[in-house]
Design brief:
By secondary structure, the chain is α+β, with helices and mostly antiparallel strands. Helices cover about 35% and strands about 20% of the residues. The protein starts with 7 loop residues before the first strand and ends in a 15-residue tail after the last strand.
Length: about 375
């Protein structure tokens, strides 16, 4: 006899930072709010739905957001306050199950196959959690209910904002079939283009491809693609899973020399910093990743005496690592061209952990 399907929730707070600002300042309600510092190097941390109507999105350069929505109200982020609200949301979740896996300050997976309140269904648990968030915190959350994590995450986005969507086990294959393959986890721009070359645009079309073909073309990820296309995801909810690393990377339209990648480093560092601020832990190590035109991967890392305290500090560290690559004339010829760059933060610790006194710098090739 096969095991009963898991009952997984994905709870996602709606426009979290912006919603907290609108909740706490009545003059902001109904107005396009952008949570970001003003300035050429700033990126959007969050945007209210009123601002999103103008095309403003998280991780977008703040100057572009201002052009898209000249009437937006810019509010500097207050992560201390957002973390406090996030803890209150977490307490509501933990009253229903101990199996809560936070992904960031504003979203989490929950396994409610068995729930503490003895509610009859996972849908009822999701409804109760959303109601408690609304009543206690005056905020809204969207929820997805499904037999596994990746489906629950797709479902939570289905009726945003303030929505609930359920994917029942018997409906999984029919639900997935018409979706673009880009909705599957791990299918980014490059993988989407590679699948398009095969004529695969939907999950249903992907499901029609034989496993040996997918493994031959995409290696181990080919098997993962086949499983996702069939709605299979065995990854369990992992409570209190600590953040290990956060990164952003980009493949260039054409290969670039080392001297031309600074704008990309700055943009990716801003994006990485915005993502890292969604965690309650502190990153101590900066990582720069480069891929050459012949697919050689170079990584350089730096652990400064004090953890980066701003996007500007992260950018400075990343550029220092770029300079280290540029100065390595023996290992990396000066005329090397690069096809990809990535900026990451790693070595996360709790905020109140003492700083280590060991070696402050590390590098790897």
């Amino acid at each position: 006899m096969s095991a009963a399907p898991r009952k997984i929730l994905h709870i996602d707070m709606d426009a979290f930072y912006a919603s907290v600002e609108q909740r706490d300042d009545a003059t902001l309600r109904g107005r396009p709010v952008v949570v970001a510092w003003r300035g050429a190097r700033s990126v959007v941390c969050a945007a209210s739905y009123e601002a999103r109507a103008f095309g403003v999105r998280s991780a977008m350069p703040a100057v572009r957001a201002e052009r898209l929505c000249p009437g937006a109200v810019f509010v500097p982020p207050d992560f201390t306050r957002y973390r406090a609200v996030s803890r209150a949301v977490r307490e509501i979740m933990l009253a229903h199950t101990d199996l809560v896996e936070p992904l960031s300050l504003d979203e989490a997976y929950l396994d409610v196959s068995v729930n503490k309140q003895g509610l009859a269904s996972a849908t009822e648990v999701a409804q109760r959690i959303r109601a408690e968030i609304r009543e206690r915190l005056q905020l809204t959350a969207s929820a997805g209910v499904a037999p596994n994590k990746f489906l629950a995450k797709i479902a939570s986005d289905w009726k945003k904002p303030d929505g609930l969507f359920v994917i029942r086990p018997k409906d999984v294959l029919d639900f997935l079939a018409p979706l673009p393959v880009a909705r599957l986890p791990g299918v980014g721009k490059v993988m989407d283009e590679r699948l398009a070359e095969l004529g695969v645009r939907t999950v249903g079309e992907l499901r029609g491809r034989a496993l040996p073909e997918l493994e031959q073309r995409f290696g181990r990820y080919g098997r993962r693609l086949a499983e996702l296309a069939h709605g299979i995801d065995e990854h369990p909810v992992q409570p209190d899973r600590p953040t290990q690393s956060v990164s952003a990377e980009d493949t260039f339209e054409s290969d670039l020399p080392i001297g031309a990648i600074e704008p990309h480093i700055r943009r990716l560092a801003e994006k990485t910093w915005a993502a890292a601020r969604k965690t309650e832990r502190v990153p101590r190590t900066v990582v720069l990743k480069l891929k050459t035109r012949d697919f050689r991967i170079l990584t350089r890392s730096l652990t400064p005496p004090q953890p980066p305290a701003s996007a500007g500090a992260l950018i400075a560290c990343a550029l220092q690592l770029r300079d280290r690559v540029a100065a390595d004339a023996v290992g990396v010829p000066a005329d090397t061209l690069y096809r990809l760059v990535g900026v990451g933060l790693a070595n996360f610790h709790e905020a109140d952990d003492p700083l280590p006194q060991a070696d402050l710098f590390a590098a790897a090739s």
